[in-house]
Specification:
- Helix content is 41%, strand content 27%.
- A 4-stranded antiparallel β-sheet has the order 1-2-3-4.
- It has helices spanning 2-42, 95-100, and strands at residues 50-57, 64-70, 73-81, 87-93.
- The longest helix has 41 residues, at 2-42.
- The protein has one domain.
- The protein has 115 residues and is of the alpha+beta class.
Length: 115
C-alpha cells in the first residue's frame, strides 16, 4: 500500500512540474495556427509567400504572440496578437534590416492602425 501511495505522489509531482511546459507549448502552437489561418483565409496571402509563422511566449504582455516573416521581406518580423481575434501590433527589423536602413514607410506588410 505504501508503494502505491509513493507512486501516485511521484506521478502527481511529475504532472505538476510538466503542466507549465505543456501549457506554453500548446499556446505557441495555437497562436501559430490562428495567425497562419488568418493570413491565408482573411488576408488572402498565398502560403508560398509566408516564410515562417512562429508562436512566441513573452515575459511581457501579451504573454503569447506570433512572429511572421514574409519571403519578400525577410529582414522584417511582424508581430501578431491572436487572443480573441487576430491583429498585427508591431514589427521588428532584423540586424540586416537595420543595416539596410529600412524605414517604416517601406514596409510591404505593415498594417497601419486605424486612427
Amino acid at each position: 500500500m505504501k508503494r502505491a501511495k509513493k507512486m501516485m505522489l511521484v506521478v502527481i509531482l511529475i504532472a505538476v512540474i510538466l503542466t507549465p511546459f505543456i501549457y506554453v507549448q500548446a499556446n505557441k502552437m495555437i497562436y501559430t495556427n490562428r495567425v497562419s489561418r488568418y493570413l491565408v483565409e482573411t488576408e488572402k496571402i498565398p502560403l508560398d509567400q509566408i516564410q515562417s509563422v512562429t508562436g512566441v511566449w513573452s515575459k511581457k504582455l501579451p504573454a503569447f504572440c506570433a512572429v511572421v516573416v514574409f519571403k519578400d521581406e525577410p529582414e522584417v518580423e511582424y508581430i501578431y496578437f491572436a487572443h480573441n481575434g487576430v491583429m498585427q501590433f508591431g514589427y521588428n527589423l532584423t540586424e540586416e534590416g537595420k543595416q539596410k536602413g529600412i524605414e517604416k514607410s517601406e514596409l510591404k506588410h505593415y498594417n497601419k492602425p486605424e486612427e
